[in-house]
Amino acid sequence: MRRFGVRPYPAGGEGLSGYLLRLAELNGLVSLDEVVAICSSKVSNRGKPERWSLSHVGEIMDGLSQRLGRDCEAEAQQFEHQHTVQGIEDPIRMVRDLRVSTPRFCIDCLLENEFLDWRWSLGHLAHCPVHRAPLIDTCPSCQSRLPWASELLRKCPNCKTPWDSQKNPHQQISDFEMNLWTQLTEESLGAADALREVSAAIMLVARPFDSMIAPLNRFPATSNLWRVASTAYQLLQDPCSGSEIIRKRAERNEPLGFELSLSQRLAQVPPMKGSASLATNPPGDMPEILLEEDKSEFVTNKRVQLNWDRAIRDLEYQIDARGLAQVIGIPMTELRYCLENHCITPLNNTHVVRQQIFDIRDLHCLSELVGQNNDSGASTLVSMNDVRLDRNLTSYGRLLAAVWSREVKGRLFWSNNVPTIEIDENTFDKWLGAELRTQCSGNLECYRVMAALHCGKGRLMSLVSAGRLECVDWVIGGRDVITGASYLEYLDSLDGGSRGAQ
Description:
Elements: H1 16-26, H2 32-39, H3 54-68, H4 73-83, E1 95-97, H5 107-113, E2 127-128, E3 133-134, H6 175-183, H7 192-206, E4 216-218, H8 225-237, H9 241-253, H10 260-267, H11 301-306, E5 318-320, H12 321-328, H13 332-340, E6 357-359, H14 364-371, E7 379-382, H15 387-391, H16 396-404, E8 410-415, E9 418-424, H17 425-439, E10 443-445, H18 446-453, H19 457-465, E11 471-472, E12 481-483, H20 484-494, H21 498-501
Parallel strand pairs: 1-4
Antiparallel strand pairs: 2-3, 5-6, 7-9, 8-9, 10-12, 11-12
Helix pairs in contact: 1-2, 3-4, 7-8, 9-10, 13-16
């Protein structure tokens, strides 16, 4: 084919993939893949426009100029501009690229205008603002996902049902979504914060019962994405919806048999994203939120690979190290001690803590630790900021690791959302003494001693000058060290010699 017989101009707002599809239909071609192959042999993923780079768009337009027999500079500017609109890609958003992989459209608009608006390819938008109708990616009659076939502009390529015979339900649209449509221009998709909120809410709706929701590069190929996006807007507008999701998660985790407080904390991970203040609808104006089963297509490949011999639902039990730290209520730096002590084993083979993935069903040992009763005599409560831990050169994470692994006996609970360990006083004193002697077996860097004593460099220098602490190779501004033996003697003098008697 040297030139296309029918050579229309693109309509205002028409996207490149939609224009190529219309060109294919008018010239007797069957698919987007076929017309792109005619325009350029250098474009990969010819039938996946969401994967086209800006150079791919240039290659297609160069070939299109030859096949149309005219200068397509104006058309190229239009399509290249759509490809680079601010906000389409955002590296810190839960869905980094908002473009979808399958065609989406409003049936009423398509029948009236006979072209595909480029804005319909943005997956965070659920409805057409003109007709208040869903942007469908699935045939309402046969429920099959729509392909990039040229007959798509007239009928379903799968069941051949014409669009003019399809029922297109009109629905209520949230003010949040309407505000995003209003902000959407040829220059920008709108406020970055709002797009991040919507993106996070969409991922939460797609995986409502998942303990670990990881970012995706782009929206996956899925059916009825508009339903997911529409429910996400409801989630953002109804301040009670987050609590409802947490309640349903907790009910779903009941068969695991975890202690109640631990089960409730698991139900709150990942945390609810979004803010009701971004929308203006009163909470009662939107229909009740209906949650479906987790969509496995919204899971990253690395997680699926870890789950190859398990049921699909088992994916919801996966949790990353950050989520596990949130459940316990400790920083990642403290969780590291529990992992080094093999309190729980990751599913994947990596030593990078932030990349490790766990199964929450392996938390039964921690649940027993939370649920057990303290039958000892005098006990003490230890929290994250306990000065006794600092002074003895140890940390809360090390104590938790010892209790979790049953090296010492104790009980974990949460007081005002703060993780607290109840432990026998004598047991705790012995454990502190063992920790201190281990740390003092060598020299201690000055910054560790200053942190332990809650003092500055001046106070430390005065202790050294007074002979209370012994410093090795004292150099002002350098990384000086204090002998462990002198620090141990100093603490012993503060305790009146009781430490030496232990």
